[in-house]
């Protein structure tokens, strides 16, 4: 399942990566969030059975949680037993899906949320990425475990490290989590929330060596000031649900810029909400 708005060239590379997989997916479900251009340009793959579905977006922001849930429902209705979610920026390496399938077949992996390493790529050179070379040389993100190929590390404590860039889960385990919380709209926290839902359901994370995805470069602000309102809204919802605020690094960076402040109740608010300090 891939949710997308824009980034069409990134999606094209992802689809080529899926076509080159040693274990191709039975289905690739793409959910276009308010993306009529993608609907217009869509051409089905001749190698992988892929399906495009359109989803309207509310005024508050992109419905990332709802879009992932919709993709999962379509896949399950089509007979899926194992779900794999890929961010539109992620190209699976040739053996990534095979590694996920192998891990899912193990006793521990069958009831876990499987997480593959993600390696961030530099900007593409003029001729584009040579993905085969990148797959051999890319280094996984240092903030997440990256076992050797063939190894699976079961983690019962690190659910706060879950991210939705690349992960896989069996249908029974997916249903035990309840899926993503669709109250989250816009950028931030819906994947951290899903990690907590997995923990509540008693599902460990399993870091899967060899299930590597290559994250294609795109410009980004750090901290993501353009998503400030989303981060505050979703962070507040998360805190009301779980009792602590996520995205602390971004919030502290916003605070250093004078964009947010502590609200006196253990949370954060925009400095524009009640005027400047």
TrEMBL record:
Pathway assignment reads: Cell wall biogenesis; cell wall polysaccharide biosynthesis
Any matching Pfam family: Glyco_transf_7C
Domain Galactosyltransferase C-terminal residue range list: 167-209
The entry's keywords:
Glycosyltransferase, Transferase
Name the source's superkingdom.
Answer: Bacteria
Q: Per the database entry, which stretches of residues form a coiled coil?
A: none
Q: Please give the family membership noted in the entry.
A: Belongs to the glycosyltransferase 2 family.
What name does this protein carry? Glycosyltransferase
Question: What organism does the record attribute this protein to?
Answer: Aeromicrobium halocynthiae
